[in-house]
Design brief:
Protein name: Methyltransferase domain-containing protein
Number of strands: 7
CATH topology of the largest domain: Rossmann fold
Shape: globular
Structural class: alpha/beta
CATH superfamily of the largest domain: Vaccinia Virus protein VP39
Strand content: 15-25%
CATH class of the largest domain: Alpha Beta
Helix content: 25-40%
InterPro entries: SAM-dependent_MTases_sf (IPR029063)
Order of helices and strands: HHHEHEHEHEHEEE
Number of helices: 7
Organism: Aspergillus pseudotamarii
Radius of gyration: 17 Å
Distance between the termini: 32 Å
Largest sheet: 4 strands, antiparallel
CATH architecture of the largest domain: 3-Layer(aba) Sandwich
């Protein structure tokens, strides 16, 4: 069944405007955030992030979509001249602004923008040629499942946030295909080395992946 993108955006706005205040206090979310942060900090060469130099003319930007989890820009903000947090939810953007303030960063270094960039093609359109497109999401562990909803890793349909998700787990082939559609290549795909406890999953377990590509 086709997903109405506008409707999905509205659902995310309505849910996350309230949920953003409480969900990031859960222990499983803290474990998720730590795994993401540890990978990013330990694999800068893989991500393609360039370390700061004395060249004051070089300006690098980090665009963080679904930015309220804070982990990407908290881990990497010191490597960029500007960080731009993007989300459809006011509640999530408020969390982003609060984190920027707690880090003591001026407003011109961390900007929050409310916009719908759910489609990979829209995200990639904001990248310069040679820019890096990084996707962090949940991987399909059971490739034999007929579809993503049949997988034990799929989000439990009874979970309060289930109606905000159109696609909850991905294969490597799907991610490479999305990059290709968005005009990005040299794709890479890495699975997390640990499977996490995720209460909202049907099996109670999920595995992260990192997908990487270059903008042509």
């Amino acid at each position: 069944m086709a997903v109405n993108n506008t409707s999905l955006v509205d659902k995310n706005q309505a849910y996350w405007n309230g949920a953003a205040k409480i969900i990031f206090k859960d222990n499983w979310v803290h474990n998720l955030q730590k795994q993401i942060s540890d990978f990013l900090v330990s694999n800068l060469d893989w991500t393609g992030v360039q370390l700061p130099s004395n060249d004051s003319k070089r300006r690098t930007k980090l665009m963080d979509c679904a930015c309220d989890n804070k982990i990407v820009y908290m881990s990497l903000h010191h490597l960029f001249s500007k960080c731009i947090g993007i989300d459809v939810s006011d509640g999530r953007l408020d969390k982003y602004r609060a984190t920027a303030a707690s880090l003591g960063l001026p407003e011109h270094r961390m900007i929050a923008v409310q916009v719908n960039l759910l489609a990979p093609t829209r995200l990639a359109s904001r990248l310069r040629p040679g820019g890096v497109f990084l996707i962090i999401d949940w991987a399909t562990r059971d490739s034999s499942a007929v579809n993503q909803h049949a997988s034990p890793d799929a989000v439990n349909p009874e979970h309060p946030a289930a109606f905000t998700i159109s696609h909850d787990i991905f294969t490597q082939e799907q991610i490479v295909g999305l990059f290709d559609q968005a005009g990005c290549g040299d794709a890479r795909f890495v699975l997390a080395d640990r499977i996490l406890d995720v209460p909202g999953a049907g099996s109670g377990k999920m595995q992260l992946f990192w997908g990487w590509a270059n903008k042509f």
